[in-house]
Design goal:
five-stranded mixed beta sheet, alpha+beta, five-stranded antiparallel beta sheet
Length: 942
């Protein structure tokens, strides 16, 4: 061997030293099985231990300041103080005085079983906390949403109502579980159940404890006298005392009672047959008459108690709370006076009203009118009574959503016409008539149903539902049915309350911000803990929707067509909407209600500061119906009185137009599109409307431009027709006579208009020439005419009518004779004319008061009868009658020979005296006469 080793160990080391790096030789070592798993388990255990230690530490840290289980707190109650909105005035102290304590042994088993089956079926099996129930509640909440089911046991409820604040925190829940465990260690199950049944709240009017509830609802002297159906009803009340109150909400109460009966049967406390039998009992069959009257502010405080319980889980009657509210005592006192018949005159004792006054900016309820002649715990017509809203729903479901989503203007054209729902059912307006094209503003102001339905359809049911939900109206959820088109005009199955409507309408006045109406602002607990209960504001609509809807509702009040003109109040800017609902056909028949009888009458109105919702009507159909003017106007009357009172001495405010809205002048709707007015649009058809900025119309209407052109064209046609007619009546005349060596020519026309013009031409041996042209009658003198020559004259009017006359100038010998004579010779022709003209002098004696149609040819004149028909003289033109358009007719006796010159005659309007002088040569129509009468003298009047 070349290598010598001292030992085998040295040889092994040498061999290892000679191995190549990075390579292993021989078989690899086997890893120990389960090493990684053991490490994981160890890590988990370590984390668990650390978590346990941390959890235990956290648990003890959380319970370290938990209150002690105090016997006095468990069995005694501490009253709560209710403050008005000034935060100082205590309006009432509630609690303690109306409790009737009952021992465990005095409570019948049927009552115990009803509550255990409903509230904590494993009550006798757990030690204060039921982890099985907690697991089931978690699964139910995961499946159906948070709050679907609670996990608190009866023991936990006693602890919560006695020792802890209602803050829903992990710490409070841990303390609740710890104290429940402690309570179970200290008290028996029987004692704990006794505590629970004596502390639980049942109804308004400070009704708490099972004994007090039995007496209140069923009039029994002892809880021992309760029957199965009554026990089940009372066991169902604590979950929601107002919702399930059998006096005010029998339908909901019936459902809740039946649920309790089913739970009792399911868990073996009763048989199913017993449950079914109990279900057959009318939930109101055994109710006692509610006779206890309410005290001051009880109606408002009932709402306070409900809010505190709902929002904090605390019991205001025993928890020693300080409750700060929104109550305005001045407003509430006045509303109470209204309800007590001190302000308005109600028609009868059964006539009811409910109203809510809300501050627009905060949503705080200032006052509640719960009804007339109310008893403690009775129906609150302002907060619990649900009725169909009628047309008051239109701003919420119809026009509001259309402005919000479609950016409609206040002037959106809508055609009011015969129409029907999508399923073919006809829809009609209240007046059974149609208005044609109207604006959305006018449609709302007149409360037209058909345009409202069209607005609902244009937006769609989903958008309408979304809009209403934002205003606190979850209609389909509460009604149990989907939105239908009948909702657009208030056709609900159940309806809404004045409280809901006041909250919804206040958002319009608050620039689109919705504040849930509330009565409580904060609650302070005995340990100093404070909880702010003021709802957070949320945007329900855009500011343009709020402003434009408000302005439309102002028209309901201010416009002549508005349905709420009666609420106008000097100094107040008021907007609102009226609404009515009718009885069903079955109700009308059963109670003999006339067709005009109304079931509900509403008015929801607001100023910049306050919103008031008023409902009026009767509790049931058998109590009466609304018919008289006093009844139909009562809601508006109440609103006007209350809004006037609460606004006294306060800034009135105004509705401010946001930058998102513009006002524009438009033509009133005559079609589906709005247009700007033209210069031809009548002022009566121009209106101002509001538009979302950027949507105002830009096109100018041509409707009246076209009409104006057509009208002018038609006027021209009519004028032309009239002119043609008038022109046909214009009768020109012309006379020519020779005297003193000159020819005198005179022209005129009967019925001549002020713009009638004349053109006079003359034909002579020297040819033709124009003598004159111009408006009005006139005359001309032709000096030194040619002896023995014939001169012809023609007058033509601008209307195309003409007349002619001619005269022959005597030769030299005739002229001398003529000049020597003192009067014209009679040549037979003249005699004939005169004799003919005077044959009936009585008929032509100054009776012509009108038109003179005297431009007739000679043969017509010779046949003159001297008659006057309607002032139109068809006789001899030379009989100088009253012709206002004839300057030459009746020459006033002034047309004499003066140096051979004839002065144009003036119109003297004189009457015919009956004496005739020799006539002048008569005028002829448009064709010139070929046989002029020689040597004619002008006529004169005597």
């Amino acid at each position: 061997m070349s290598d010598n080793y001292r030992s085998r160990e040295e040889r092994r080391r040498a061999m290892n030293d000679n191995k190549p790096e990075g390579k292993s030789q021989g078989k690899p070592k086997k890893k120990k099985k389960g090493g990684l798993f053991r490490k994981i388990v160890a890590a988990v255990l370590l984390i668990g231990i650390i978590g346990l230690i941390a959890g235990v530490g956290t648990f003890f840290a959380m319970i370290s300041d938990a209150p002690k289980v105090d016997d006095s707190v468990l069995k005694n109650s501490f009253s709560s103080k209710v403050y008005a909105n000034d935060g100082k005035t205590v309006v009432k102290e509630i609690g303690a005085q109306k409790r009737t304590y009952v021992q465990y042994d005095e409570i019948p088993q049927v009552v115990k079983n009803a509550f255990i089956a409903t509230e904590d079926v494993r009550f006798y099996k757990h030690h204060g906390v039921d982890f099985y129930r907690i697991g089931g509640a978690l699964m139910a909440n995961f499946k159906n949403g948070f709050g679907a089911e609670g996990g608190s046991t009866i023991t936990q409820q006693v602890v919560k109502n006695s020792f802890l604040s209602p803050k829903k925190t992990v710490k409070r829940k841990v303390q609740e579980m710890w104290l429940a465990y402690q309570l179970e260690r200290k008290y028996s199950k029987q004692q704990i159940l006794e505590m629970y049944l004596n502390k639980i709240y049942f109804a308004s009017g400070e009704v708490y404890g099972i004994e007090r509830a039995a007496e209140k609802f069923y009039g029994v002297k002892s809880v021992k006298d309760l029957t199965l159906d009554e026990a089940a009803m009372l066991a169902g009340l604590p979950k929601a005392p107002t919702t399930y109150n059998p006096v005010t909400n029998p339908e909901n109460a019936t459902k809740r009672r039946n649920t309790v009966l089913n739970l009792m049967a399911k868990n073996g406390f009763i048989t199913q047959a017993e449950a079914d039998k109990a279900k057959q009992v009318d939930v109101q069959a055994h109710l006692a008459k509610q006779t206890e009257s309410t005290s001051k502010y009880d109606v408002f405080i009932d709402q306070v108690i409900e809010e505190v319980k709902k929002k904090t889980d605390a019991d205001p009657f025993s928890a020693g709370l300080e409750i700060y509210t929104t109550l305005d005592t001045n407003a509430q006192d006045y509303v109470d006076d209204v309800m007590n018949n001190k302000v308005v005159n109600f028609p009868n004792d059964k006539f009811q009203a409910g109203l809510v006054v809300v501050d627009n900016e905060t949503g705080g309820i200032q006052a509640i009118g719960g009804g007339r002649n109310r008893v403690s715990g009775g129906l609150n017509f302002a907060t619990n009574m649900r009725r169909q809203p009628g047309s008051t729903i239109k701003p919420i479901l119809d026009y509001g959503p259309a402005i919000e989503n479609l950016k409609w203007s206040t002037g959106q054209p809508l055609k009011d016409e015969e129409y029907h729902y999508s399923n073919g059912t006809p829809i009609r307006n209240f007046g059974r008539n149609y208005k044609g094209w109207v604006s959305a503003r006018e449609a709302l102001g007149r409360s037209l149903n058909i345009p409202a339905l069209k607005a609902f359809q244009a937006t769609g049911a989903d958008k309408a539902k979304e809009f209403a939900t934002g205003l606190g109206l979850k209609l389909d959820e509460e009604d149990g049915e989907a939105y239908s088109e009948s909702y657009s005009i208030g056709g609900f199955r159940t309806g809404v309350t004045p409280l809901q409507m006041a909250g919804a309408y206040s958002a319009f006045a608050n620039e689109g911000m919705y504040n849930a109406p509330h009565t409580v602002t904060k609650v302070k607990f005995p340990d100093g803990t404070e909880i702010d209960l003021t709802p957070k504001s949320k945007r329900a609509m855009q500011d343009y929707t709020a402003f434009m809807m408000t302005d439309m509702m102002k028209s309901v009040v201010n416009e002549s067509y508005g349905t709420a003109r009666a609420v106008r109040t000097p100094g107040l800017e008021i907007a609102g909407k009226t609404g009515t609902s009718n009885f069903s056909a079955a109700e009308k028949q059963r109670y003999n209600i006339p067709d005009a009888g109304e079931k509900d009458v509403w008015f929801n109105g607001f100023t910049p500061n306050y919103t008031i919702s008023v409902w009026t009507g009767y509790e049931t159909a058998k109590d009466g119906y609304i018919l008289s003017p006093n009844e139909t106007g009562m809601a508006k009357n109440i609103f006007k009185h209350v809004i006037t009172h609460i606004s006294e001495g306060k800034p009135k405010g105004s509705f401010k137009q946001p930058d998102s809205v513009v006002e524009r002048s438009v033509e009133k709707p005559t079609g589906k599109d709005l247009k700007r007015p033209s210069g031809s649009t009548p002022s009566s058809l121009i209106t101002k409307e509001y538009f979302v900025r950027g949507t105002a119309p830009t096109k100018v209407s041509q409707t009246f431009v076209k009409k104006e052109k057509e009208e002018k064209k038609e006027e021209k046609k009519e004028d032309k027709k009239k002119d043609n007619k008038d022109n046909k009546d214009v009768k020109p005349k012309i006379t020519a006579s020779y005297s003193g060596g000159a020819i005198s020519v005179n022209w005129s026309a009967s019925n001549a208009a002020s713009d009638t013009t004349f053109t006079v031409t003359m034909s002579s041996p020297n040819g033709s020439e124009q003598l004159a042209s111009g408006a009005g009658a006139g005359g001309k003198t032709i000096s030194n005419p040619a002896p023995g020559a014939t001169y012809s004259f023609t007058v033509t009017t601008n209307t195309g009518e003409s007349a002619s006359s001619s005269v022959k100038v005597p030769d030299s010998s005739d002229q001398a004779t003529e000049d020597d004579s003192t009067k014209p010779e009679d040549d037979g022709t003249t005699d004939d004319n005169q004799n003919e003209d005077n044959s009936n002098p009585d008929q032509n004696n100054g009776s012509d008061q009108g038109d003179d149609s005297s431009t007739q040819p000679d043969d017509n004149q010779n046949n003159n009868n001297g008659s006057n028909n309607g002032g139109n003289n068809s006789g001899n033109t030379d009989n100088n009658n009253n012709d206002s358009g004839n300057a030459n007719d009746g020459n006033s006796g002034n047309n004499s020979n003066n140096g051979g010159t004839t002065t144009p005659p003036a119109d003297n309007g004189g009457s015919d005296s009956g004496s005739q002088t020799p006539p002048t040569t008569p005028a002829t129509p448009s064709t010139p006469s070929t046989s002029a009468t020689p040597q004619q003298e002008p006529t004169t009047e005597n």
